[in-house]
Amino acid sequence: MLKQRIITGVILAVFVSLAIFLLPNPLFDQLALLLMVGIGTWEWANLTGFTDKQRRIGAVIGSMFIADLIYLIAPPLLPILLLSLATWGFILYLLRSYQPDTTYYKTKPWLLRVLCALVLVPAWYTLVYLHDLHYGYVFYVISLVAFADIAAYFSGKRFGKTKLAPSLSPGKTREGAVGALAVTLIWACLCALYTDLSFGSGLVFVFFSMLAVVMSIAGDLFESLIKRQAGAKDSGTLLPGHGGILDRIDSLVAAIPILALGLFVIGKL
Q1: What confidence tier does 28 reach under pLDDT thresholds 50, 70, 90?
Q2: How far is CA 57 from the centre of its chain?
Q3: Residue 25 to residue 67: CA distance in whole angstroms
Q4: What's the structural domain count of the chain?
Q5: How far apart are CA 210 and CA 265, in angstroms?
Q6: In the chain, where does DSSP find H-type helix?
Q7: Is the pTM of this model over 0.90?
């Protein structure tokens, strides 16, 4: 399983890197739209009760229509970020109050479905906004989340004892989270030193990078909540050893708006 996971991860890393560095902005934007919003919504809809293809197709068309409409209007990034931050603030409340035997989501089936568009569309728009400014921003946020994921996995395997959120994801540990923060702190500091940031801006950049890692963990836990409600292990089977697209971008969609806010604060956006 680990071998298959590593092979798929390497292939994904190569594919994503080539897309980030080589594709012109319009092609990158549409590829990201297909993967994040299109396939992401397809899997999300399946997990939230849209078991027939017609309803899932309808959900995908709706999400992609909203995304394309925003893309054409091209609003300033800040309102989109504020919408995303408000959405994740509400999600943090859901995570904190979650109980394994809850019937809350059964009585409100629309809630997780609405959150699909509120999570995926702003994250996609922010990602393509960053790519249009400079591909390095996209590479950084994806590498940050990837390093956090890898570090959490191996440090959790080696040192993990205390469960982070046992009611949502029994495999995650506080030690794994600490390992993720330690590794990504080093990466954030190196990237801050590599850029032309002042000392103060560099500190803000590192702070928001670490906050983005914390939110990436919350994103992972939120998908665990959705899968737990659906009684599913993975969001899909598209990626051998990794599950579906949502299983790969759950952390990323939570981290992107936080890092973008940090870039906004230091005047890079």
Answers
A1: very high
A2: 22
A3: 16
A4: 1
A5: 15
A6: 2-22, 25-32, 40-47, 53-73, 77-96, 104-107, 109-133, 135-159, 174-194, 199-230, 245-265
A7: yes
- In the block, tokens 């859901």 appear at 94
Q: Which two tokens stand for residue 170?
A: 């029994």
CA-based nearest residue to 16, from 269, 268, 239:
239
H-assigned helices in 48-134 = 53-73, 77-96, 104-107, 109-133
Residue burial 108-146, b: 16+ Cβ < 10 Å; e: rest: eeeebbebbbbbbbbbbbbbbbbbeeebebbbbbbbbbb
DSSP state of 237: S
CB-based contacts of 222, cutoff 8 Å, min separation 6: 91, 94, 95, 250, 254
Range of the domain at 212: 2-265
Of the candidates 247, 227, 228, 231, the one whose C-alpha atom is nearest the C-alpha of residue 239 is: 247
Task: Provide the CA 193 distance to its chain's centre, in angstroms.
Answer: 25
Structure tokens at 105: 């989501």
Crossing angle (nearest 10°) for helices 53-73 and 40-47: 140
pLDDT tens column, 120-157:
999 999 999 999 999 999 999 999 999 999 999 999 98
Of the candidates 186, 211, 239, 212, the one whose C-alpha atom is nearest the C-alpha of residue 13 is: 239
